[in-house]
Amino acid sequence: MTEPATVSGDDILSCANVWKFYGPKAHQIEAGRSRGISAAQLYASPRHLAAVRDVSLSVNRGEILVLMGLSGSGKSTLLRCMT
To answer: Which of 1, 15, 39, 74 has the fewest CB atoms within 10 Å, i.e. is most exposed?
Structure first.
C-alpha cells in the first residue's frame, strides 16, 4: 500500500498505528508509545519484542483483505489486536 490508510465513510474496517509488544511489563512499553517515545528507544530493550509495528490499514466496502506472511510474522497477532 503506497498511500496512508485513512478513515472514510465507506470503510468497513480500519485501524491506525497498531503496535503489540511482548515481554516483561509490555503494558508499560505500550503506554510509553502513546506518550511519544520513539521507536528506536522501544527497540533498544532486548527484553521486549515488537510483534506488530505501526500497522495501519483500511478495507472499503466491496474489497477483500488478505493477510499473507511467513509463520511468526504477526498475522494472527494483528487480528487479535483488532478484535
So the answer is: 1
Render pLDDT for 13-65 as a digit per residue (tens, 0 to 9). 999 988 888 877 777 766 766 777 776 676 676 777 888 888 999 999 999 99
CA contacts within 13 A on the Cβ side of 75: 8
- Compute the distance between CA of residue 11 and CA of residue 77 in angstroms, rounded to an integer: 22
Which residue from 7, 10, 15 is spatially nearest to 63, judged by alpha carbons?
Answer: 10
Reported confidence tier of residue 3, pLDDT bands at 50, 70, 90: low
CA distance 23 to 50: 9
Enumerate the domain spans of the chain.
11-82
Is the distance from CB of 17 to CB of 56 less than 8 angstroms?
yes
- Check if the beta carbon of residue 21 is closer than 8 Å to that of residue 51: yes
Q: What's the gap between Cα 21 and its chain centre?
A: 10
